Amino acid sequence: MGVSGPFPGSAGRPEGQALDRDEADRALARLGAEYDAIESSLLALQDHAGRRLLEGADLTGVTKERWAATERSIAVLWSHFDAYTAALTRAREVRARRRWSSPDDLAELTALLDSTGAEVTTDGAVQRCTLRELVERMNGRYARALDVIVAADSVWSALPARIDLLAAELQRTRSLAHSVGVRPGEHPSGDDLEDITEELGRLRAEVIADPLAFWVSSSTGSSAPGGGRPDTERYDRAARALEDVRREIEAVLDVRQDAEQRLMHLRDVLSRADRTLTEARQARGEVLAKIAASEVPAVSSPSAALHEQLAAAVDYRRHAQWHRLSPLLERLEERAEDELLRARESLTAVTAPLAVRAELRGRLDAYKAKVARHGLADDPLLAERYDAARRMLWSAPCDLRAAAAAVLRYQQAATEAMVPDQWDREGGA
User: CA 305 to CA 331: how far, in whole Å?
Assistant: First the structure.
């Protein structure tokens, strides 16, 4: 949502002097463009997935309180927009009276466009303000509302899915624990598993009901919506506790059935490697669809030889051929870890273009915010270069090299434009 600056042609015009026809027409054109931008922003806010989730959720705590305030603020936003619309409509009607506006028409237009032409109701009281002041009020409310919505949506997008994955891993660990006699009341790790189960249940319910309680605002003072990150401290603590239990169960397996434990670990490592390669293949398809990057590496298939050797190891154990099983297990354990590492490196390699695109998007938006703070949001060259870079970064497939060059051009132009702006503010020539 753009911030309205001085009206075209108003700089240097004595206070109280009416706009001339050209100035009025330029002001109306600018206000019309600003109207479209504000309306687009408000509709996007109304259609934001995070807002729809907040509206339908059974909220508690800080999220319930802040969302109630945000809903009221959004309602005020629309009422301000209605006031802006009414003032602009009235100004257009005055300008449309005649082709060559009379002095009286121009005086009325000046009052509407450059004086207290907007009428808003705040806490039951009617106030008049300029359109610039009205836009500034809308900008503030819009930024605060978007911050709440983006923060809640970010928490909901991150934590519940991670908790569910950890819960699935917990269930697998519980089954393994039961198979070796690690049960609640009989072994400390069994009690720990019960505690982790209860904690994950509580954590998920609290995250769903009060996502903003799990949001850490950015300490850098970022002006970007939702500047911050989800608070994963409790999740991380549960994950570490589960990992500790898993190691304890492995120790029990080493004592009671070393060979079986090692075979199960091999199955797990190879399964993770296979799943990672599958994920890498799926990610490669996504990257090729979204990024114009011919250098995206191919993803190999799982190692059939390793799976055949694992089957042979299982057969050795079944027939108590320990002299053959032991050296085979040692070789398999080393190769399986290498296979998992290879799979992870493959996944990292194929998803690298998406990470590069995300970094370019972040840099572009950061510079746009900086440009806006310097009052250069309406600079034609900057707007043109920003739009060019944004089109490249949000197109599919995205040409990363061209997009990076476009972002650099915008960054350089922004830096050059902000230097004289800073000099002027400090009293330079």
Answer: 12
